[in-house]
Amino acid sequence: MPEDVPLEHAMVSKAIEQAQVKVESFHFDSRKHLVEYDDIMNKQREIIYQRRKQTLESTSGKVEKILEQEVNNLVNLSLNPQTQLIDHEALMKELVMIIPFEPTSQKQVLEKLKPLQTGEELIPEVSAIISRTYTQREKQVGAAVMRQMEKFVLLSTIDRLWIDHLDAVDDLREGIGLRGYAQRDPLVEYKAEAFTMFEKLINSINYEVARKIFRVQIVQTNVPPLPAEALAKAGPKTTESKSETPTIPVPAPSSFAAAFAKAGSNRPVPQPAGSNPAGKKTKLGRNDPCFCGSGKKWKKCHYPQLAN
Fold first, then answer.
1. What are the SecA Wing/Scaffold domain coordinates in residue numbering (predicted)?
2. What does the alpha-carbon distance between residue 130 and residue 71 come to, in Å, rounded to a whole number?
């Protein structure tokens, strides 16, 4: 049979059609899984970007809510599950991580918290301490500066931890396919792991923001005022005498420097005004601006006319 004659048979056409259907279904499943994996990160990305947008618009009340959540976490972590009693020493260590108390203040706060043995009693007291510290800090630096500090702490913490989260999720996605050998659906496992990691991300953001907000220091650069003598000299002149006008002497170039510049370039060596002898004309170079003031080079303006 010649090579240019096509094969036409119902069995061959059906076999090719079945193979094409299998290949297309395989690629369709791959694209579907890819979209499902991407949807998980898109939902997390929307939450983080929405939080950043709200922070850029306004930070009023955000830090206070984070501090309230951290107070509840501190009290719950310091509670002994066996005796149901509060470990005041551990609570004080964590509280110092949020508010940098001095040793004397630490002792005073600890003595004030020791009579309180239940979480219901400690949470309002610790919240009141943090609230008073926050108000005092805001009065110290000003409301506008406090909002800028909150915005800086929130954005820097979110950005840094979000980048680390993206790297961790990429590593998870590369190896999640191995879960299939254990008869587990990789997509389901990926959703569960990614959700757990995202919860840890939110908790880490709140944890670091609460422990940074009272430790940010404002550095102000104060410009020293000018002395009265300098201000008097810088003031406007009342007389227009020529003798009082300050002059800046322009030193003449040395003979060696002038000779070296002249040897290395066809352009004339720049001389200070009045240094040329009377009657001596400066020779124009081919690449110098033309004397007519057109802005063109001399070789492209009047030089061809003079040459002719």
1. 6-217
2. 9
In a domain, residue 101? The reply is yes
Q: Tell me the one-letter amino acid at 184.
A: R
CATH number reported for the structural domain that contains residue 201 in this entry: 1.10.3060.10
Model confidence pTM above 0.85 = no
How would residue 216 be classed by pLDDT, with cut points 50, 70 and 90? confident
Torsion sign over Cα 159, 164, 166, 169: negative
> What average pLDDT does the segment 74-94 reach?
83
**188 CA to centre of own chain:** 34
Looking at residue 276, what DSSP letter applies?
S
Q: What is the span of the domain harbouring residue 104?
A: 61-141
- Provide the terminal-to-terminal Cα distance of the chain, rounded to the nearest Å: 83
Q: How many domains does the chain have?
A: 2
CA distances (Å), 16 to each of 7, 9, 11, 236, 304, in order?
12, 11, 9, 95, 79
